[in-house]
Write a structure and sequence with these properties.
With about 70 residues, the chain is mainly alpha-helical. About 45% of the residues lie in helices and about 0% in strands.
């Protein structure tokens, strides 16, 4: 089934994984990462996303409030 929103999603998808077959197809991306106990790129900031560490632990670590 073709994603009707792929063109629109491609504009905001921040996944930098080269050749990702799910780029811009959010439902497939969520399903893929969920089955691997990960989160998709859109949950991470640009710097963290480029590490390709999509683990939930990394998400929690990067989202902890910083105490000044």
């Amino acid at each position: 089934m073709e994603c009707l929103n792929k063109k629109k999603n491609d504009l905001v998808c921040n996944c930098t994984y080269p050749g990702c077959p799910r780029h811009g197809v959010c439902c497939e991306c969520l399903d893929y990462h969920r089955s691997n106990q990960e989160l998709p790129a859109c949950f991470f900031d640009q710097k963290t996303e480029k590490t390709y560490d999509r683990s939930m632990d990394n998400f929690i670590k990067t989202k902890k409030p910083r105490i000044v």
